[in-house]
Amino acid sequence: MSVLRIHPRDNVAVALSPVAAGERAVYAVGQAVTALEEIPQGHKLALAPIAAGEAVIKYGYPIGRAKTDIAPGAWVHTHNLGTGLSQGVTAAAEVDASAPAPLPPRTFRGYRRPDASVGVRNEIWIVPTVGCVNGVAQALARAAEPYARGRVDGVYAWPHPYGCSQMGDDQAYTRRILCGLIRHPNAGGVLVLGLGCENSGISVLRDLLGGWDAERTAFLECQAAQDEQREGEALLRALIDRAAGDAREEIGAGELIVGLKCGGSDGLSGVTANPLVGRVADRLVAMGGTALLAEIPEMFGAEGVLFRRCADEAAARALPELVGDFKDYFVRHGQVVYENPSPGNKAGGITTLEEKSLGCVQKGGSAPVSDVLRYGETVKKRGLCVLQTPGNDLVSTTALAAAGAQLILFTTGRGTPFGAPVPTLKIATNTALAGHKANWIDYSAGGLAQGGDWEQHTQALLQTVLDTASGALTRSERAGYRDLAIWKDGVTL
């Protein structure tokens, strides 16, 4: 079939490949519609008459309302479909603790840290407390790399523009993210690099950390040091010497925390890559692991899907509150909640935020929501957790890493080269992208649009996750693409 009706209730279908004007598109046994115009891949065509003001249904849910009368076979997109979203939270959460049936745990080869956490890389990280020392951090990373080569998995600095001239929650966000990075088990050693006069200096972060492994964590205040480069290099050499003795060991997949993210989505994101990632997330949860779903604005219009499967009353209270607070964040800044699909999203076939969101939440699979985390918090419970982040790719993936994710599954229909602070597996929604940008893409889910076997793809992507956790490099790691961004929400002094 050239088109797919995802749910029996749907009154639109998705073009799995371009549909020519006049082509008879079969969407079910004995059911077809003739395309009135060319339908690009990933875009929608109407299966039945849709009157102006009537709901357009995809995934079994409304994705907006028709702006005009739409005839069967017509292209359905921004010219004739508008959002139906309102500003408030309209759904209530429910408790449904029916977890996936337990599965025997698979294993990977990771690093067991002294605090019992598990890393999938053995890197040395330099975490600046403030943007003023970014240059020093990067110079130290370059100087230490030759000494580290072949002994650890690399030396990385995490420059950012914050750490001072911040107030309130904005300052707290930065501190939480920095602490999450300092504690991260993918780092076999961490140098915390401060200036000395900043708001979020070393003494503040030490208090927030509450404790740290003195063998794998060093601190350097540049204003107090006579020669910060020389002292920093000495500290890094000591960290490298200690981390070089760490070795991989067999560890159960239940120790994995996997971040879930999509970016540069297209009309096939909710048809191929996102539901595939959801299946892998369910397998990991069934093995005792953790899947971490972020991007709260990309739940707007689909929040009810998650609200109906909270593991307990605490999650049922926290999840609507989190979504409501994020909508209020839009309103405080004078923005509407539904202005989200990017130009690239729209070019790929996504019309409204409801449509984008219904595809987005499929990355969370079917497991109950076990916990709800605010931005900068770290994972406390296993299972499917929801993390407060904006949709922005760099900000969201940084927060996933700081929350404890050792690696990230990142689906994309348009492609992106970036990598998060932790290994970032790019999963293409369509075969054309995977072929065109093979240097960016780690796995292609495009075959699912041509009748590929779901179980085979699920097993293959799960094995890719385990291989990556065991040391196989992602495309972005091979290219040296590692990026970090912190959410800015407040006054700059």
Automatic annotation (TrEMBL):
Pfam families: GD_AH_C, GD_AH_second, SAF. GO terms for biological process: D-galacturonate catabolic process. The keyword Lyase applies. InterPro entries: GD_AH_C, GD_AH_second, SAF, SAF_UxaA/GarD, UxaA_altronate/galactarate_dh. Residues 10-82 form the SAF domain. Keywords: Lyase. It comes from the Bacteria. CDD domains: SAF_AH_GD. One of its GO terms (molecular function) is lyase activity. Belongs to the UxaA family. This is Altronate dehydratase. It comes from Lawsonibacter hominis. The lineage of its organism: Bacteria, Bacillati, Bacillota, Clostridia, Eubacteriales.
